[in-house]
Design brief:
By secondary structure, the protein is an all-alpha fold. It contains 3 helices and no strands. Helices cover 92% and strands 0% of the residues.
């Protein structure tokens, strides 16, 4: 950048703007063969990029669908966890109204359901 500014300053001082205009056009002089090569390259690259754009769009579409499916599955899982949690609460309520001979079985059932709930919650985060 510094060299470019120095060059521009020299061109302006030595030749004025008319000299600068001439220098600018000399940079733009390109052979017809090179222009053709560049045009062909741009065309080929544009086609390749168009193909990649299609692939990227396909991936994006699949990603969006996966997000929807994941969200639906997660909602279903959360609903199942809440149902299991509700079942445990109901069993705890029953515990106060149960006969003495059923307390041990009910406690065991509640503990088992709690462990199942805890394992299911941990699975979601591991």
């Amino acid at each position: 950048m510094r060299n470019a500014l120095l060059y521009l300053s020299l061109v302006f001082v030595v030749g004025g703007w008319s000299g600068f205009a001439g220098a600018e056009t000399s940079f733009n002089k390109v052979s017809e063969a090179t222009k053709k090569e560049v045009a062909e390259f741009k065309s080929k690259m544009s086609k390749k990029l168009d193909e990649l754009d299609k692939e990227i769009e396909k991936i994006e579409s699949k990603t969006n669908q996966a997000k929807k499916n994941l969200k639906q599955n997660a909602k279903a899982k959360v609903r199942d966890l809440k149902d299991l949690r509700k079942d445990i609460s109901e069993k705890l309520s029953e515990l106060g109204d149960t006969s003495e001979d059923k307390v041990a079985d009910l406690k065991l059932s509640i503990e088992h359901k709690y462990e199942k709930l805890q394992n299911e919650v941990e699975k979601l985060f591991n």
